[in-house]
Amino acid sequence: MQNRKKYKEIIFSIICALAVVAISCNKDFVRTLPDKKYTDTAKASFGERKVLYLIVDGARGSSVNSANVPNIKALLPSSIYSWVALSDPDSTRDVSNWANMLTGVKKEKHKVLSDDFAGNNLATYPVFFERIKEEKPNAKIVSFASSATFKNKLTQGTTASELFSTDEQIKTAVVNSLNTDTAQLIVGQFNDIREAGAKYGYNNSFPQYKAAIEKFDGYVGEIIDALKKRKNYANEDWLVVIASSGGGKFNIPPNENDNTVFSNTAANTFTIYYNPKYKQRIIGKPFTGNRYLGRTVRLKDTGIRAEIDTADIFNIDDTTKFTIELKVKKNEDKFFWPSILGKRPEWSSGHPGVGWVIYLEDTYWYFEYRGTKDGDYHQCRGGDLPKGQWQNLSVKCEIRAGRRYIRTYTNGVFNNELDITESGSLSNNSKLKLGYLNGNGHGTPDVYVTDIRFFKVDVPDAVIGNYACETSISEGHPYYTFLAAYWPGTDGQGDRIRDVGPQARDFKLKGNYQWEDFNDLICPPPAGALAQFVPQTADIPAQIINWFRIPNRQAWGLDGRVWLDQ
């Protein structure tokens, strides 16, 4: 009983303590909120959001970056920006690039492919001015353009759209609008840089092109000055977007060409998103692949090739598990059936003779074989091989549940599989041949082939993927002890491609060969994958819509992404 009374006293004390805390907390809370009405709006808290959008045609990002552009660079400490931004790498027309920048989708959707806009799909994917109007019917949008096509075809939804004959007039119109207008979105389209590039060349080595870039920078200075002198600027929140719609064709030096989309000068743009509250964020060139350099032989036509006379170790019988890997760089876009590595009596129409061949067809590659049992040939397709890029080809034979399978991989990524069980042995008494293989009914190669590995084991998929883009093999490779042969192919001199594996079976070079230096990337990611890491022209509408706090509706199907300053 005594304990129960004591327990009640404890509970009472706790309740009183909590009450005191609650009262104290409530007093503090009341003190921090005086009796005053608040309006929780973006305008009151952050300033009215507005956008200035300057589109400049033909300005290569790298050229703008290296020019004397103090006004543009003054914005960078408070900007999200990139000098390696991208337009559509396959687009060759201003109208397609403009459509990307004004619809927020790529040409596959908006279908603006020609200057006459034939077959366009702007009804489904309209310019983003109309998207803004859907959510903010009273929003004032004005556009000033130097192109009649831009004005007449891509400014639907604007409150006012005007055409001018010079970039200086565009600048003046934008400045006048900033001085007097209440527009939420002001667009200016400038064309002088593109005209200078088309006439003289798209590079700062041409003084006229560089001068056009620097003149545009002067316009930017006047425009930003007018923006900051607006009477109500302190109560406004401006996003300034300056972006080129596309670059221009220019032959960059070989040592700057990495054979990726970033060496496509026509697609090289720049994008700047400026707001005084932004933290600086520089978006640079992403990782594009491992550097691969050496000295090798160009295998070309019927004459320049290599072969191994005694090649029994490379026979593939009906129980052999194997993995063959090699790196290939093509010198043409498409080929039609030349062998690049094979062991069979001949390589001819009808695919006669037991054996195997790795060959090129169109833009891709195949592993082809004929065995001793089923009397027919079979082909297992690999992946596409872009011209001028080192790619890793792998083919292996593995046994699963008593069945044998051929599997192909490109840059470590699985391509295709065929059941080889009924084909029997692929063994023969033929030489192992690198480059042209004698026969008829097929083309001739023009390729570099290096880093050839022949394993007498079915290397696991994960290991193939992990090591595909390595430029050499060492004892650290988990299947190094299974190597029957390894030809780096970068000897740099002599009449042989030496086998540094256990058998020392060297390829003997034939024909009028020469050793050539190379310094390239190996296994660069595809253009689409790389483009995701930098701003693209189709991103800009999504960025502006987000700035206006308009929800990006799934039904709109926008392709672009929003870039943040952190």
TrEMBL record:
Origin: domain of life: Bacteria
Record-linked InterPro entries: Alkaline_phosphatase_core_sf, ConA-like_dom_sf, DUF4983, Phosphodiest/P_Trfase
Biological process terms in GO annotation: carbohydrate metabolic process
All residue ranges annotated as the DUF4983 domain in the record: 475-564
GO function terms (MF aspect): hydrolase activity, hydrolyzing O-glycosyl compounds
Protein name as it appears in the record: DUF4983 domain-containing protein
Biological source species: Mucilaginibacter celer
